[in-house]
Design goal:
431 residues, alpha/beta, 2 domains, eight-stranded parallel beta sheet, 4 helices
């Protein structure tokens, strides 16, 4: 081999080896769900507050594959809400008679864009007599009929949910896949708290929990994490037919250590038919419920994170008053899973006139043992940012873009490698 050939080979081989060692790119949630979407996203989501808006978020904050029932003393759901079935508002008498959606009095204060769809349903919207659904500044788009008092713009559209329907199967498949991830740490119920101990180095910290996170007699207890590297994604798989979390961990001002994990913390319930989130805290992290036959009941004073369930959701109960769902993004790097094709949607302008008009001014309310192993699914070694998303401003669904930089580099290296082989073969024939 001549000097020129050896030099060319020495230049190409390291690049070939580099491309062979490129880690698999981790995936976000299906449909690009999770991160904030749109040009008005804030650089940082503030703690729960009642100050001025700090941005606008076009992404879905609450997705419900089944029905959404507002009960008890529930007060509001912040952000864009999409429901496959009907939306039913029937709170307990004697308390506040309103339920805010889209824009709320207390939360991240990052609502959907003005004039966009705050609530989308594949069924009817039913508001009990004497109660009000407040969507001021936005649109309530419903496939079925709407009854009761609804503020904002109410539009009946038989295809309202059609573009979002594939998300149910995609989320179910993802939830099932995430549950197969090998645990990297342990979760132990210590009586007064559940302690999650990570391995201290993995970019994806995985915990498998086959028990309820509750105190003695089903009461409240703490939640604590240790051994979690900075920037790591935390995936908690809660297995079993019924799971309950009742905790006092998680505050309003983000001083609690668990609050710091919120953007990259996902609680995954792959098979449960009954999920309960309660206690007297702001529940931190995003929630994914994968069983379409499930019912999730949220009675905690507040949640801080996305809430995606393929089943039904009941918001509110008698244990607390003024329960709220707050809009906070999920930006974690999850295992790459085979799932139904990601679908984006485009919402066309309404073809019908509004079925109701604003009847009141906005009213807001305040908040008041598994063995450590190396994950078997592909991980990314980059943990500081989530993949960028490209959103559809009218639907709130976002799709992730391909990493074309790596593809271009790999293609170029194949071309260089082919050229090297050609040179070597020609020089061999000449000799």
């Amino acid at each position: 081999m001549g000097a020129m050939s050896r030099a060319l080979l020495a230049a190409v081989v390291p690049f070939v080896l580099l491309t062979a060692a490129v880690p698999s790119v981790a995936a976000p949630l299906p449909g690009g769900l999770g991160p904030c979407a749109g040009p008005a996203c804030p650089g940082t989501f503030p703690p729960v507050n009642n100050g001025p808006f700090t941005g606008r978020d076009e992404a879905i904050n609450v997705f419900v594959g089944g029905t959404f029932a507002v009960r008890g003393g529930a007060a509001e759901a912040e952000g864009k809400v999409v429901v496959g079935g009907g939306f039913d508002l029937a709170k307990d008498p004697g308390g506040s008679a309103v339920y805010n959606i889209g824009i709320v009095g207390v939360g991240s204060r990052v609502p959907p864009p003005e004039g966009s769809d705050f609530l989308t349903t594949g069924g009817s919207v039913t508001v009990a007599t004497g109660q009000r659904l407040l969507a001021d500044g936005g649109v309530v788009r419903h496939a079925g009929p709407a009854t009761g008092t609804i503020t904002g713009k109410s539009v009946q559209d038989s295809a309202a949910f059609a573009g979002f329907a594939p998300l149910t199967a995609q989320l179910q498949a993802a939830s099932t896949c995430y549950a197969t991830s090998a645990a990297t740490g342990t979760a132990v119920n210590q009586g007064h708290q559940t302690l999650f101990t990570g391995d201290g180095h993995s970019a994806l910290q995985v915990f498998t929990v086959d028990f309820d996170l509750v105190g003695s007699g089903g009461g409240q207890q703490g939640i604590a994490f240790t051994g979690i590297p900075a920037g790591a994604t935390v995936l908690v798989n809660l297995t079993g037919d019924a799971r309950k979390i009742v905790t006092y961990t998680g505050g309003l001002d983000d001083t609690d250590p668990v609050n710091a994990l919120r953007p990259r913390l996902l609680w995954n319930f792959p098979t449960a038919t009954s999920v309960t989130i309660g206690g007297l805290s702001q529940f931190q992290g995003s929630i994914l419920v994968g069983n379409p036959g499930s019912t999730t009941t949220v009675t905690s004073p507040g949640t801080a994170g996305r809430l995606f369930t393929t089943g039904s959701l009941t918001h509110g109960g008698s244990t607390n008053k003024g329960q709220e769902l707050h809009a906070y993004p999920f930006t974690g790097d999850l295992p790459t899973c085979a799932s139904p094709p990601t679908t984006t949607t485009t919402t066309t302008p309404p073809t019908t006139t509004p079925t109701s008009t604003p009847t009141s001014t906005p009213t807001t309310s305040g908040t008041s043992d598994s063995t450590s192993t190396t994950p078997s699914l592909p991980l990314t070694t980059t943990t500081n940012v989530a993949p960028p998303v490209d959103s559809d401003s009218s639907s709130g669904l976002a799709s992730t873009g391909a990493d074309v930089g790596w593809l271009t580099l790999i293609g170029a290296l194949f071309v260089i490698g082919g050229a090297l082989v050609t040179v070597l073969v020609r020089r061999r024939r000449q000799h």
